[in-house]
Amino acid sequence: MIKYGELSTKKANINLFLKQLKDNVSYALEDLDVKVKFDKGRMFITLNKDNFSLVEEALKHVFGIHEYDIAYKVSDKDFDKIANIVLKLVKKREFKTFKVETKRSDKNYPIKSMDFSRKMGGVILKNINDVKVDVFNPDLRVAIEIRMDAVYIYFNSEKGIGGYPVGVAGKGLLMLSGGIDSPVAGYLAIKRGVKLECIYYESPPHTSLEAKNKVVELAKKLALYNNDIKLHVIKFTDIQQAIYQNCPHEYLITIMRRMMYRIAERIARMNNCKILVNGESIGQVASQTLTSMNVINEVVKIPVIRPVACFDKLEIIDLAKKIETYETSILPYEDCCTIFVPEHPVINPIVSEAREYEKAFDYETLIYEAIKNHEVIKISLKDEGKEFEDIL
After folding, report:
1. What percent of the chain has pLDDT over 70?
2. Looking at domain 73-156, does it have CATH number 2.60.120.620?
């Protein structure tokens, strides 16, 4: 039994959120023998004991779930029959203290919630030795929901990962490097309902195949939450060399980022992505000062979302460890952002100077060629153990 949490605050458009959550849950569980149905109060997954652990593992990666409970459904609402089943279930558990909590969404049921809880507590006290009620810190919480269709009995709940169902907010394009920050930014964007595609810039022979494979692994980690991901791989070598040969070296990072943004915006529009997402954190490096962000952002009209902009590095690392991207991110393979780095990059670039330096080479033709020849790697949860499909 799935509880919605934040989704329950939605009004007229709640069905949009719940339908998307139902689709995402069904997708995550499509290889298992389950049935999924929902109403505005709860979502129910009917399963069998053999696939319980697999269902539970899958639900840990589905955004939009506030809490889930292993519930026992009782179709007959007669109190004595409910009590018999409750006794059978609690006798299988070890506890010294307990509390009964009842919710009654079926307002026509003749016993009110508080009275039902007291009555059921009395049954447990009468039939099980050496236990007592503790309403503040019980060993066992006996939760009972009296709904229109049936009565549901469950015990200690499991927390979901919250957020909004993936896809309900539309699509975004994540600028995915091999570092720690961008996968965390991607995770946070997915949590708010954004369905992600990713873009990665490689500079062979300056960057290695291992660096690219590292990014594929990071995208695979994000696919656990995103269902599947398209990774757009841009060969950035010619653009990067043109910048190095024609622009003042203190402006290399600024102009390189401006080119990345231009490419990302065009890839985003080609794929119906409404925003760009990246892992920039204010003040962390030269290109992430407020002045630098303004100068770099100037080349695009699409909104740029920076989920970790106000996180410090330790907070980002903690979240990277939680989502299991950290160990992959710290593998020692350089990406294109770490090559050709000047000794003293400008931290307060001037936009008019950046525009003037860019006139020194034909970047529009280079961008066109990079986009025209870019590679797309499709990564899906359903492709575990298979080769990823490359599409030119």
Report:
1. 96
2. no
